[in-house]
User: Fold these one by one.
Assistant:
Number 1:
Amino acid sequence: MIAYQIKPKVKPSEALDYLADSLIFLDCGSSYSLANSIALKILLPPEKFDHLFASDGPYPFHLSFTPSGSVHCLLDEVSITSEDHIQTGDLCFFTSTARYLSKHPYGHNHSLNTLCIDAVAKRYLAFGLTPEGCSHEEIEKKPI
């Protein structure tokens, strides 16, 4: 698991710009945290973003996909019983991807983090998948 923590007296918006423009290492969960952070920076006024995610603010900027990650407080974790309940934009964790588990035997959640990019066609996007996304069945067959 890879994480980045904001330093005191650094504006969160500047830290995020630095991360987005730099060569950094990210795992699949942290990449979603980065994307969520960039989306929030676009949606929120700069002063509000910098206040919320300041090192001494309510949610200190911490780029990680763990409960300590600053955007994690904005996500709801929901267990589903059917793929029909998944909506476009949902983060989905595939725990039955055998090859992924053998690649990451000591990974944080032992699951492949994906983003649902088409709820109707049931397509998911993740590191190692094609830009068009893959179905659940295709993910199971990928040598990720």
Number 2:
Amino acid sequence: MNSAAIAPLLSTMQPPPPPLLRCLETSLTAAAQMLVSLSTDGAHVWRLASQDPASFPSHAFQVDRAAVQQLCYAVDSTWISHTFAVTFLVLCYTRGVIDDNLQISSPSLIIPPETSLIARLLRLARDIFDAVCEATRLHPARGFCAIVRDATALVLAPDESEVDELALQAVLDLVNEGGFEWPMVEWE
């Protein structure tokens, strides 16, 4: 995910400038792929394209317990990346950059339909983190569970839960921290 290049999109409610659309599309696809890779539709991951809703399975995503088990003791950066993917999707949606099917759009914040792509991806992300955090007490993902729960609640049930905005800000601070290097992709 090329988050640094699209940072201006997440800090304003303005429509994305044309040069950033390609970066945004690639980052949306990468975020979706990261989450879908740990679902029972993981084999489908390389066919996903964020701006083509037909490239996604139409059913609710289910956690692939075997895949999550294999990643159970992955290094912290794996869980930081998955947490950032969730936070990125939530920010894009809540800032009106994308609609409920990940389509780049104009601002309109409503609770997405349960069958929409954003709702299905965010439920999958929440279920992945819940599965990992329930499996063991000492896990690097445990520290990110609250962030993922709060981020998904912003979109899935904004009126039903209190969101710890400091936890969400902590992920953004981590992204911008000098000691943490997110890869940059140069576009032609």
Number 3:
Amino acid sequence: NGMAAYQRAEQERVTRADEDTKNVLQTVKKVKPHLNKQSDKNSTYNRHKGNLNHVAYQWGRVYHSR
């Protein structure tokens, strides 16, 4: 039955997306404390902070557009 198959596929997609969200958030959590400890704030911290925010932002767009 096509509808059931569709719903199952949709459910898997949502579950996978939620897993991806958890992974991204955990990565951000893991990386952030290290970045905050940078004594030379300007170089490494700011470069990576930009990357993290960009990843989070891009992920938010992907996540909310489904």
